[in-house]
Write a structure and sequence with these properties.
Blueprint lengths: L2 H40 L2 H34 L2 H35 L6 H30 L4 E3 L5 E3 L2 H5 L4 H29 L7 H33 L1 H8 L5 E2 L3 E8 L4 E8 L2 H7 L5 E2 L11 H31 L9 H9 L3 H15 L4 E3 L3 E2 L9 H31 L15 H17 L1
Antiparallel strand pairs: 1-2, 3-6, 4-5, 7-8
C-alpha cells in the first residue's frame, strides 16, 4: 500500500479511538452536574454515591481523550503536512481557540471537581462541575466547527499560492452544516452516556453489587434515552436534508442511487455492486427515499452518475444502516425500559433477567452508532480533505510507506491494549463499587490508578 492509503488508515484508526472518549465525556459531565444538583437539593446519599462513582469514570475517560487527541494533532504534521500549509490560517486558530477557551477552562476547574468535595463549599463545587461540563461542550464546539467547515467550506479566500485565508470568521464557524452536526453529535454523546449508565447499572444488578445509587442511575439512563432518541431521529433527518443540499453525492452513496431518478426507493438492505452500478438482493420501500429526502413521492434525487468524483458506496451504504439499526434498537430498549420502570414502580431489582442482560450487552451501543455515523461523515467526503477544494492526495506526506506501516502497527497494539484496559476497569468498578466508593483526595490522587491496576490484574487473571 502507498503512503496515502496507509495514512488514511492510520488517521481513521486514531480518530476512531479518540472519538470514543469525548463521546462519553461531553455528556457525562452534564449528568454529573445533575447528580450533584440532586444531592445538594435533596441530601439523599444515593445521589452523592452516584456522583462519586461516575466522577471516576469521567476522570478515566477524560484522560484517555486528552492523550489520544494529542496524537491526532501530531498526525497533521507527520502524515498530512500539506493540510496546515494550505488551510493553517483557518484550522490553526480554531484549534487554538479550543485550547485557550475549552481546555484551559476544563484544566482550571477539573481539580476542584475531582478533589474539592468537603474542601470547598457546595455551591463552589457545583459551579466547578458546571464549568467542566461547559468546557467539554465548548471543546466540541470548536472541533466540530472546523470539521464542518471541511465538509461545507465558506468564508474564505485563496491567494495565488493556493493558501486559504479567512474572509469572515462568522461564516467559517457557522458554516451551513455546523449547527446540524453539532446538535447531532452532542445528542449522540448523551445517548452514549445514557446506555453506559444503563449497561453498568444493569450489570451491577446481575452481579448483585447494586447499591443505593443503582436504581437512580438506571432510571436516569432509561428516561434520558427514551426522550432523546426521537429528538435525535428528527435532528438526523434535518442533517440529512442539509447534506442533500450541500453534498448530494454523499446522499447518493448512502442511499445507493447510481443513476438520477424520480420516486427513488428506500433500500432497507442491498448489496451495492460498483461494477454493474446496481444494488443486488435489494429489499426496498418504493419511493421511500424520495419521500424522506424531498418530501414528495416522485421527487428527483441525483445519482452518482452526475458526479465526476464521489465517495465509495459500500462503506457509506452499510455504515448508515448500521447506525440506524443500532439507533432503533436503542429506542426499543429505552421505551421498554420505561415501561418496566412503571410496571415495577421503579424497582430495578424486579426487572426481567433477560432485559438486564440486554441492557448490559448494549453498554457501548452508543459507541457503535457514533463510529458508524462518523465513518459515513468522513468517508462521505472522500476524495476531498476540504470538500470540493483540496484532495487528500495533494497534502499527503512523502514519508516512506514502511515507516507509516510501522507506526500504524504500534498504534494498533497500544490502542487495543488501552481499550481493553478501559472496558476492564469499568467492569471491575461495576462489580466492586465499594472499592471505588471513597472520595479521591489531593493527597491520594492515585486512587483511580490503583483501581485501574487491580482491574487490569483481574482481567489478566480471567484471561489466563
Amino acid at each position: 500500500m502507498d503512503a496515502l492509503i496507509l495514512s488514511r488508515i492510520q488517521f481513521a484508526l486514531n480518530m476512531s479511538f479518540h472519538i470514543l472518549f469525548p463521546t462519553i465525556s461531553i455528556a457525562l459531565c452534564w449528568v454529573l452536574l445533575f447528580f450533584r444538583h440532586r444531592w445538594v437539593k435533596t441530601r439523599e446519599q444515593s445521589w452523592l454515591t452516584a456522583y462519586r462513582f461516575w466522577t471516576k469514570v469521567f476522570a478515566l475517560t477524560f484522560a484517555l481523550g486528552v492523550v489520544s487527541g494529542i496524537t491526532m494533532s501530531f498526525q497533521f504534521g507527520t502524515n498530512w503536512p500539506g493540510y496546515m500549509e494550505r488551510v493553517g490560517n483557518i484550522a490553526g486558530p480554531l484549534l487554538g481557540y479550543e485550547v485557550l477557551t475549552a481546555f484551559f477552562l476544563e484544566a482550571t476547574f477539573l481539580g476542584v471537581m475531582l478533589f474539592g468535595h468537603n474542601r470547598v463549599s457546595e455551591r463552589v463545587h457545583l459551579f466547578a462541575t458546571f464549568m467542566v461540563a461547559f468546557g467539554t461542550t465548548l471543546s466540541a464546539f470548536w472541533i466540530l466547527a472546523l470539521n464542518s467547515w471541511m465538509q461545507t467550506p465558506q468564508g474564505y479566500w485563496v491567494d495565488p499560492q493556493g493558501i486559504y485565508h479567512v474572509a469572515s470568521w462568522i461564516e467559517v464557524i457557522f458554516n451551513p452544516s455546523f449547527p446540524y452536526r453539532f446538535v447531532h453529535m452532542v445528542t449522540a454523546s448523551f445517548l452514549t452516556v445514557a446506555f453506559l449508565l444503563c449497561g453498568l447499572s444493569a450489570w451491577q444488578v446481575i452481579k448483585k453489587t447494586a447499591d443505593e445509587a443503582t436504581p437512580k442511575v438506571l432510571k436516569t439512563g432509561l428516561i434520558l434515552a427514551a426522550i432523546l432518541i426521537p429528538i435525535q431521529i428528527f435532528v438526523g433527518d434535518q442533517h440529512g436534508l442539509n447534506t442533500l443540499h450541500h453534498q448530494p453525492e454523499k446522499i447518493a452513496a448512502i442511499e445507493g442511487i447510481w443513476h438520477t431518478e424520480k420516486g427513488a426507493p428506500l433500500l432497507a438492505f442491498a448489496w451495492p455492486n460498483k461494477d454493474t452500478q446496481t444494488n443486488d438482493y435489494a429489499i426496498e420501500i418504493p419511493k421511500g427515499a424520495s419521500l424522506i429526502l424531498t418530501h414528495e413521492l416522485n421527487g428527483e434525487l441525483k445519482g452518482l452518475n452526475e458526479f465526476e468524483v464521489h465517495p465509495p458506496v459500500a462503506p457509506l451504504f452499510f455504515g448508515f444502516r448500521i447506525m440506524v439499526a443500532v439507533g432503533m434498537l436503542m429506542l426499543a430498549a429505552s421505551w421498554f425500559g420505561v415501561y418496566q420502570l412503571r410496571r415495577t414502580k421503579g424497582d430495578v431489582l424486579k426487572f426481567p433477567r433477560y432485559f438486564l442482560y440486554g441492557l448490559a450487552s448494549m453498554t457501548f451501543a452508543g459507541w457503535l452508532a457514533t463510529l458508524a455515523g462518523w465513518y459515513v461523515t468522513e468517508i462521505g467526503r472522500q476524495p476531498w480533505i476540504v470538500h470540493g477544494l483540496i484532495k487528500l492526495s495533494e497534502i499527503v506526506t512523502h514519508t516512506p510507506p514502511a515507516n507509516i506501516a510501522f507506526t500504524l502497527t504500534m498504534y494498533v497494539v497500544v490502542y487495543l491494549a488501552l481499550i481493553i484496559s478501559y472496558v476492564g476497569v469499568l467492569k471491575y468498578m461495576a462489580e466492586h463499587p465499594k472499592k471505588t466508593e471513597a472520595e479521591p483526595t489531593a493527597e491520594s490522587g492515585e486512587a483511580i490508578a490503583i483501581v485501574a491496576n487491580e482491574a487490569i490484574d483481574s482481567t489478566s487473571g480471567e484471561q489466563k
